[in-house]
TrEMBL record:
Gene3D superfamilies xref list: 2.60.40.1840, 3.30.2010.30, Neutral Protease Domain 2 (1.10.390.10), Peptidase M1, alanyl aminopeptidase, C-terminal domain (1.25.50.10), tricorn interacting facor f3 domain (2.60.40.1730)
Catalytic reaction equation(s): Release of an N-terminal amino acid, Xaa-|-Yaa- from a peptide, amide or arylamide. Xaa is preferably Ala, but may be most amino acids including Pro (slow action). When a terminal hydrophobic residue is followed by a prolyl residue, the two may be released as an intact Xaa-Pro dipeptide
Keywords from the named record: Aminopeptidase, Hydrolase, Metal-binding, Metalloprotease, Protease, Zinc
Entry's Gene Ontology BP terms: proteolysis
Protein's organism: Ruegeria conchae
Metal-binding keyword on record: yes
Lineage summary: Bacteria, Pseudomonadati, Pseudomonadota, Alphaproteobacteria, Rhodobacterales
InterPro entries, sorted: Aminopeptidase_N-like_N, Aminopeptidase_N-like_N_sf, PepN_Ig-like_sf, Peptidase_M1, Peptidase_M1_dom, Peptidase_M1_pepN, Peptidase_M1_pepN_C, Peptidase_M1_pepN_C_sf
Domain Peptidase M1 alanyl aminopeptidase C-terminal: 528-843
Family: Belongs to the peptidase M1 family.
UniProt-recorded name of the protein: Aminopeptidase N
């Protein structure tokens, strides 16, 4: 496979003035007729006329009306064209019904739909399929289906056809088409300048009851983007369509967002509180792309974080505003550590702006999205809120309608603040998670904090330079009062010293408040200090972090020294749980433990080879000890968290349910699942149903409930995904692989559906001790299925290969077993470019 480099970027030799497309829909032979106005690009020197095109059957091609015979390869075509404006016409035939890769135009349950990001448009017609080529589109759809949708505004329609005009120039990756039997949930929004926008959320018959929440989330997003960023919507209509077979979460196509049905359909009976929150965030995310992504897009795919990092940052701000900011921040930190840190510290490590790739689909990663968002958070922290707003205004003003780079982005900040961001730019270029270590000194009323930073080498980057790290620090006095309020220390050197003078007593520092930078903090503080912060820190993030660090410390000691659970942790937790002034959602988060995979990473960092079974046992023991320690409080937690009102998926109710669920999980460890069975019997929403069922399964019970759940929900694909996932997640280490393997034989295991595949295989990987079963059966099962899925859907396969990215942490036996599976995948004849790249990077 060829490697593409950022440094090789050159503009395309031609500009596109307009695109006209006609689709004659037929499942196995859809005809796409294109008429495209090109003219030479004065900014380009290379005039090669190459159009991308893959898996297309070219019927006819013409330039200025004259039929031509272009030179065709598997990647596209080359033709000789005039050195003046000209009209390109082509007719191609494609086969949506057999498009199982779900890229380009494909079919899902009888519905036609598209996914063009990153490079799917080239499977629809011949085109310069690159984000810096932007054009207006006119689309005519001929098809015998009631609903025919494309981007932009509807311009005309009749029996069996519809025409759409998108007046905003866009790259081809934002093209979309949907045709099917769909039902609209309508809505309306008036923009701040008085433009009326017709909103529709389209679902398949049967899903009508699941569209109201998404519609409300859309309206809230539209309003929020006006209020906070001054961004108004720019078309007469905004359509969202739910599709069952989809590789990603959702897609921001101009005026026609297409969503994985799991990321938009919601009802109290079928969706959990977590589902509702995620849906609200994804609707916002895709809507926000209209400005950060669509109006201002990326020059090339190396700049993907330009739109994704910024849009994730914006959707996180939105969720913080709609719900609880501290809870959102903690969720994001948990998520970053669980998904991005392993990526950044393993063989798949890459910069937020990569410099090369083979398959861009492999770079829709947590690094580009979530670390990309963290980088923006740090920038905002360093320049301040006001300067951030000013810079964003300038960005929107200056770059509207353009395809931009990270340099353009940083430039607006440099201009508005006068700050030199050349060192800050290392956050975009340097991969790996910086580690910040802390040394303290106390003398004569002066507290001295010495911070040092280092980043381990990552593939292709041996030497790391110091980065600008904003470290938010506050100091607490001996009685728990804050003696120095939060201050952002700018760590720019490898080692730097900060002094706090005039203190009456040695303070306790609260470092990296609000998780002010995506780094690993190495601070050898004592558990007494952590317990002190857990009791007194006024920074909600660090208060939670203190509990988390205590939990991690005690778990690591239990694993390596056969220690018993620390009293500091158990007592601290008990006081937090007792404190009814604290948000229930926050208290629920306090009850969380580091994931077993994170503990494996922490052991590996200490030079200890992690034993997944020992980690599992320690986590179980600590859970059991916690249950016993807080036993007397459990009845109160249950009654305090009862929701005596109709179900609402808002922060308040879901916070109560989260704490109630955590309490139920502990109770089930003491009563063997009696209370969980009662709750299951009375459950009237999916959160409750799923929580109580998982408690039962964890207690080794729940067989009857599991069967009843199946009977109740077998008609609902999204709930069935939960049914598959739950069994594998809740299985004990010895039965995980067996359970997963048996479920692959279940008639409802529609493995070609990405959601179902991920529900089962993703849960297998997520069950740490189960997946890492000593004999390698978990690795083999996953590899079997990756090999099977690859020819069908390379994108989903390649992404799941990352399950093996942490393989070098484990013992020689497991390493050998994993390597064997990686080699087996690598040697599969005809393995996709996607999976080939992933496996070879993981093998290193
Ligand atoms: N659909 C993906 C997202 O919104 C890719 N753009 O992040
Ligand atoms: Zn996005």
């Amino acid at each position: 496979p060829t490697t593409i480099y950022l440094k090789d970027y050159t503009p395309f030799g031609y500009l596109v003035d307009s695109v006209h497309l006609t689709f004659d829909l037929a499942p196995n032979a859809t005809r796409v007729t294109s008429r495209i106005k090109f003219r030479p690009n004065p900014e380009a020197t290379d005039r090669t006329f190459f159009l991308h095109g893959e898996e297309l059957n070219l019927i006819r091609a013409a330039i200025d009306g004259e039929v031509i015979t272009p030179e065709i390869t598997a990647e596209g075509l080359t033709a000789t064209v005039p050195d003046a404006p000209f009209i390109w016409e082509a007719v191609v035939e494609i086969d949506p019904a057999n498009n199982t890769a779900l890229e380009g135009l494909y079919m899902s349950n009888g519905m036609y739909c598209t996914q063009c990001e990153a490079e799917g448009f080239r499977k629809i017609t011949y085109y310069p399929d690159r984000p810096d080529v932007m054009s207006t589109f006119t689309v005519r759809i001929n098809g015998d289906l009631p609903v025919l949708l494309s981007n932009g505004n509807p311009s005309d329609k009749g029996e069996g056809w519809a025409e759409w005009v998108d007046p905003w120039p866009k790259p081809a990756y934002l093209f979309a088409l949907v045709a099917g039997e769909l039902i609209a949930h309508p809505g309306q929004f008036t923009t701040k300048s008085g433009r009326d926008v017709e909103l529709n959320l389209w679902v398949r018959p049967g899903d009508e009851g699941k569209s109201a929440f998404g519609m409300e989330a859309l309206k809230k997003s539209m309003k929020w983007d006006e209020d906070v960023y001054g961004r108004e919507y720019d078309l007469d209509v905004f359509n969202i369509v739910a599709v069952d077979d989809f590789n990603m979460g959702a897609m921001e196509n101009k005026g026609l967002n297409i969503f994985n049905s799991s990321a938009v359909l919601a009802s109290p009976e079928t969706s959990t509180d977590a589902n509702f929150e995620r849906i609200e965030a994804i609707i916002a995310h895709e809507y926000f792309h209209n400005w950060t992504g669509n109006r201002i897009t990326c020059r090339d795919w190396f700049q993907l974080c330009l739109k994704e990092g910024l849009t994730v940052f914006r959707d996180a701000q939105f969720t913080s505003d709609m719900r609880s900011a501290p809870v959102k921040r903690i969720h994001d930190a948990i998520d970053l550590r669980a998904r991005q840190f392993p990526e950044d510290n393993g063989p798949l490590s890459h910069p937020v702006r990569p410099e090369s790739f083979q398959e861009i689909n492999n770079f829709y990663t947590s690094t580009i999205y979530e670390k990309g968002a963290e980088v923006i958070g740090m920038l905002k922290c360093l320049v301040g809120d006001e300067a951030y707003s000013e810079a964003l205004d300038l960005y929107f003003d200056r770059h509207d309608g353009q395809a931009c780079t990270i340099e353009d982005w940083l430039q607006v900040f440099e201009e508005t603040t006068g700050r030199d961001l050349s060192q800050f730019k290392r956050w975009y270029n340097q991969s790996g998670t910086p580690r910040v270590s802390v040394a303290e000194d106390w003398a004569d009323g002066t507290y001295t904090l010495t911070l040092s930073q280092r980043t381990e080498p990552t593939p292709g980057q041996e030497d790391k330079q110091p980065q600008v790290i904003p470290v938010a620090v506050g100091l607490l006095g001996p009685n728990g009062d804050e003696v120095r309020v939060t201050k952002v220390l700018e760590l720019t050197e490898a080692e730097q010293t900060f002094k706090f003078t005039g203190l009456a007593a040695k303070p306790v520092p609260s470092i990296l408040r609000g998780f002010s930078a995506p780094v690993i903090l190495e601070h050898d503080s004592t558990n007494a200090e952590r317990a002190f912060l857990l009791a007194h820190d006024i920074d909600p993030f660090n208060r939670w972090q203190a509990g988390r660090s205590l939990a991690e410390d005690t778990l690591l000691r239990m694993i390596t020294e056969e220690a018993t659970p620390e009293a500091d942790y158990l007592d601290g937790l008990l006081s937090v749980l007792r404190d009814e002034t604290l948000d229930p959602a926050y208290r629920a988060l306090m009850l969380g433990l580091p994931t077993q995979s994170e503990l494996a990473a922490a052991l590996h960092d200490k030079g200890i080879t992690p034993d997944p079974m020992a980690i599992w046992r320690a986590a179980e023991t600590l859970r059991q000890a916690t249950a016993q320690h807080v036993q007397d409080l459990l009845p109160r937690l249950h009654s305090e968290t009862l929701v005596d009102a109709p179900y609402q998926p808002d922060a308040e109710q879901s916070g109560k349910r989260a704490l109630g669920s955590a309490a139920l999980a502990l109770t089930s460890r003491l009563d063997g699942g009696i209370k969980a069975a009662e709750e299951y019997a009375h459950a009237n929403n999916m959160t409750q149903q799923l929580t109580s069922l998982s408690c039962l399964l964890r207690a080794g019970k729940g067989e009857a409930e599991l069967a009843a759940f199946y009977d109740q929900w077998q008609h609902d694909r999204l709930v069935m995904d939960k049914w598959f996932a739950l069994q594998v997640s809740m299985a004990g280490p010895e039965t995980t692989v067996e359970t997963a393997s048996k479920l692959t034989e279940h008639p409802d295991f529609n493995w070609k559906n990405p959601n179902r595949f991920r529900a089962l295989m993703g849960s297998l990987v997520g069950n740490h001790a189960g997946f890492h079963q000593t004999d390698g059966a978990g690795y083999a099962l996953l590899a079997d299925w990756l090999i099977r899925l690859d020819p069908v859907n390379p994108q989903t396969t390649a992404r799941m290969c990352s399950a093996f990215q942490t393989w070098k942490r484990y013992d020689a036996n497991r390493q050998a077993l994993i390597r064997k599976q990686l080699n087996r995948i690598a040697e599969t004849p005809g393995l996709s470019r996607d999976s080939t790249e992933m496996v070879s990077r993981i093998l290193g």
